[in-house]
Amino acid sequence: MDTTTAVTSYRLQSRSVSEFERARRLQRIKALLKKEDAVLVAHYYTDADLQALAEETGGYVSDSLDMARFGHAHKARTLVVAGVRFMGETAKILNPEKRVLMPTLEATCSLDEGCPADAFTAFCDAHPDRTVVVYANTSAAVKARADWVVTSSIALRLARYLKDRGEKILWAPDRHLGDYVRRESGADMLLWQASCIVHDEFRGQALADLKRQYPDADVLVHPESPAGVIAEADMVGSTTAMIEAARVRPAKRFIVATDSGILYKMRQAAPDKDFIEAPTGGHGATCKSCAHCPWMAMNTLATLESALITGAHEIRVEESTRVRALKPVERMLAFAASEHTEVLGLGNA
Ligand code: 13P
Ligand code: SF4
């Protein structure tokens, strides 16, 4: 099944259940979480139902860095990661003794797909003088080849740190985030050329037009977006930083350039404010143009329930790969803990 067909089928299945059945399913999932000694950790881009369930059941909703931190610190025997595959793998890298389940193992990421381990290893081997920094949105095998793993919440800070130490960086896989970090830090960075299919769709000119329509609005942009979109931003930052900006900035209206799943938490953080989705290149709600990650959308109450019943979608990482990947992941956590992670970029209050 291709991705578009798979996502459409997931969406249709989840819409066709009645409210009554939905409530019963929620009850069953809650009971299963208890029975399995499991905790639900969800990303901001997942369905609002899943985010609400994670909150209600003592789980957690956050960005990829904090999901890793929460899962690592939690005592549950099973971590259920609602997000995309690299998030499940990061949980497993950190917690080999725990069972890590996902609603579906089909949920990948275009950045992960766009950086195959063999080609990436050859690229690193061709540039032995560079420190290898990879974004968390990569496979365990790619992390195993890296010196550092980062998420968008610490990428800029790490680049500045490495630059101050006189190190040259080989960055993968997101070219827009890499380009943004290179511009902001002035570090010497060689970039792998993959991109996020969701953020790649935002358009700078259309965003400039929308700003003219809403001159009172602040523009919040995730740095996986193209440079022309970032140029229109009042604030650039990770998902958590964007939510925090919506809460603390004085503006009453925001234009948001990231996956629309984030609006659940943004509205919770700033209930008295208005949010407008930034324009994308597509016409109509295709997976590529709807500002919603097709793989995040594969996480539904139905797939979650089924994973808990069958235990089938368990993340496994080959042990020697896990041990090698653990080092740069632990470095990331130690670095993130060494100071409060800063809100990145332009015009931060
Ligand atoms: P965060 O690290 O900000 O959660 O982003 C992950 C992601 O996949 C963004 O598209
Ligand atoms: Fe990957 Fe983009 Fe989806 Fe994030 S939104 S998981 S970067 S494809």
Question: What does this entry look like structurally?
Answer:
With 349 residues, the chain is an alpha/beta fold. The chain folds into three domains: 3-109 and 294-316, NadA-like (Rossmann fold); 111-196, NadA-like (Rossmann fold, 3-Layer(aba) Sandwich), CATH 3.40.50; 199-277, NadA-like (Rossmann fold), CATH 3.40.50. Helix content is 46%, strand content 13%. It has 16 helices and twelve strands. It has a four-stranded parallel beta sheet, sandwiched between helices. The chain has a four-stranded parallel beta sheet with strand order 6-5-7-8. The chain has a four-stranded parallel beta sheet with strand order 10-9-11-12, with helices on one face. Strand 3, helix 5 and strand 4 (99-101) form a beta-alpha-beta unit. Helix 2 packs parallel to helix 15, helix 4 (64-73) packs parallel to helix 5 and helix 5 (85-94) packs across helix 16. The longest helix is centred in the last third of the chain and has 20 residues, at 319-338. It starts with a helix and ends in an 11-residue tail after the last helix.
List the helices and strands and how they pair.
Layout: H1 3-16, H2 19-35, E1 38-43, H3 48-56, E2 60-62, H4 64-73, E3 78-82, H5 85-94, E4 99-101, H6 110-113, H7 117-125, E5 131-135, H8 140-143, E6 148-150, H9 155-164, E7 169-172, H10 175-185, E8 189-191, H11 204-213, E9 218-221, H12 227-230, E10 235-236, H13 239-248, E11 253-257, H14 263-269, E12 274-277, H15 301-310, H16 319-338
Parallel strand pairs: 1-2, 1-3, 3-4, 5-6, 5-7, 7-8, 9-10, 9-11, 11-12
Helix pairs in contact: 2-15, 4-5, 5-16, 9-10
The site of 1,3-dihydroxyacetonephosphate (13P) has 10 residues, from helix 4.
